[in-house]
Amino acid sequence: MTASPDLAALYQLLANRETPVLPSGERRAILGCGYVGKEVAKAWKQEGHELWGTTTRRERFGELAELVENPLVFDSTDASATLDFVSDLDGILVSFAPSKGSEVDLGQYRKTFLGGLRRLVETLDRRTSDTPLQIVQLSSCGVYGNRHGALTNEMAPIIDNHPVNQVLLQAEEMMASIRSDRVKVCILRLGGIYGPGRDIPSMLLSAAGGLVQRNGLNVPCWVHRDDIVRCICFAFDQGLDDTFNLVNDTQLSGQELTDRLCERAGLPLAKWLTIDTSDRILNARVCNKKLKQIGFTFNHPCMVC
């Protein structure tokens, strides 16, 4: 028996439609709902997960309450603050980030950033649940330091001669220490983040015809916020348990990048310095091949494409 023309057309229509994603019902937490974390919350909410989220600022509690069912203010410097709620979760995104003030005060940076991670590790060490736990930690490609523009993958040594890199490396080691047959830990080393509200190309174009007070010979790396969100979801879906560079394909020096942007816009070229003006430098052509090999694709592969 064959289907009627009308039914055949209906079957074809249904076959071409995407299968709806059903809510998984997982219980997940976002520790640090900032620029990236709040977008992850939106994505996970659409997928039907029950969410916990933290902020260090009480004035952001109302905004956070609109994103997650269980908002909390967590200050790692407060002895009474607790992360006990993570013990029974299915997934945790660790996206603690220092405030601008903490970036200047290295002592405070260590205290707040590493303090929060220590509290998390201590809590998970006491975890008795047999439920598998997926963790994704956001780190930085800044840990590669000055490799003189060399092609750099995840096997490259960490340059830990700067206090910030020492903190980042210690954080990665702390999270890796809790890996087990029940706990998977994916560490994503991010490039410089751009996207809505962080229009790096426009900022670089504003320097057209002027002098940029940084070393234009250094090679930074970049990633769009939306690709970070997609990769975090990818890591949870795939159950990743390794370290990956999360950067786009742009491997240009600062001078090369602004030259291309200015030429495209018909603006005079900006001039960069050729000496370092900071004691913390990233100068590496960071490779994203490992992430691509397991199936991740970028929606924003290049800042100047």
Relative helix content:
25-40%
Give a quick account of the main beta sheet: strands, pairing sense, barrel closure.
7 strands, parallel
Strand content range: 15-25%
Based on secondary structure, the structural category is alpha/beta
What does the radius of gyration come to?
Answer: 22 Å
Order of helices and strands: HEHEHEEHHEEHEEHEEHEHEEH
Q: What do the pLDDT scores average to?
A: 89
Biggest sheet strand line-up: 3-2-1-4-5-7-11
Gap from first CA to last CA: 53 Å
* Tally of helical segments: 10
The strand count comes to 13
| Bulk shape | globular
Low-pLDDT runs = none
Description:
The chain is an alpha/beta fold and 305 residues long. It contains ten helices and 13 strands. The chain has helices at residues 5-16, 37-47, 61-65, 100-104, 106-125, 163-176, 200-205, 225-238, 254-265, 289-293; strands spanning 27-31, 50-55, 70-73, 91-94, 133-140, 146-152, 183-190, 192-194, 211-215, 222-224, 243-246, 271-273, 283-286. The strands form four sheets. The chain has a seven-stranded parallel beta sheet with strand order 3-2-1-4-5-7-11, with helices on both faces. The chain has a two-stranded parallel sheet with strand order 6-13. It has a two-stranded parallel sheet with strand order 8-10. Strand 2, helix 3 and strand 3 (70-73) form a beta-alpha-beta unit. The radius of gyration is 22 Å and the shape is globular. The mean pLDDT is 89.
